[in-house]
């Protein structure tokens, strides 16, 4: 078959047609450029995934997308969905993920829905993303990060006790996951890429769990609020009793400034889905290209002429985005104050 970028993508021999919708978010700003680049990588290098329907959701107030973005969305076959939910937590920048998949699953009929962050590149056909018979949910374990718990002696464990209580469990009831960097952690997922069976109505339940977490003020630090989507993701899987399978590292491999050891050609040679985080920033750009070039020369050749991601200047759009950032920041500070902490200070109890 031929993808919308004009390059030919070859399906795996004998593979059945995919029934999957890919969901992303798009808002004014860097997310426009990153989303377009991510979808173009899918169209060029995704093999039999290349022609899947992609729905880009704008789930909260934002300045308008640029004319160039809208033109490229048409070229790449991206459907645009705007929704305007009445959501008191629109200040939380990851709430948009839950709003997006909840909206899309009410509008599509595919067997599976895949959420994909915009800071992702498809390097080759990502066959691990298919739901096998009897499996309802796929995702990869994150690194232990700043909120993961390795057990009862971990300083983060009280947070996991409070989180588990949301679904009527204690921390020790949660399954264990093995991270790509060798840690054994309590059950939570990287929320940058996951696939679920549409009939599970996971998006609706994920959104409800997100709001319950915030309503009950489970978090007691900025980090616990910031990364809560990954926690709620796992809790929702358990609450719904879904059959889950962990994706291998090669299907959501991180390269970023806070994991410098992953900028290694040997580590990415077998990777099909690259989670590049801040690697499109000017200071990390050359390092990203050097990491990709030996094992993925076609990706490097496609990326290099595009350069690092930078917004074209636009005073009206910049003022609009900054105004919304200030308003949302104020609302977040009010929530933090009601929870008994600030971004810079939190109770010693955790």
State the share of residues found in helices, binned by percent: 25-40%
The side-by-side strand order for the widest beta sheet comes to: 3-2-1-4-9-6-10
Low-confidence stretches: 1-13
Secondary-structure element sequence? EHEHEHEEEHEEEHHHEEHEHHH
Describe this structure in words.
- By secondary structure, this protein is α/β, with parallel strands linked by helices.
- The protein has one domain (20-256, 313-339): Alpha-Beta Complex (Spore Coat Polysaccharide Biosynthesis Protein SpsA, Chain A).
- It is built from 11 helices and 12 strands.
- α3 runs antiparallel to α5 (202-215) and α5 (202-215) crosses α7 (228-239).
- The longest helix has 25 residues, at 315-339.
- It is globular, with a radius of gyration of 20 Å.
- Residues 1-13 have low confidence and may be disordered.
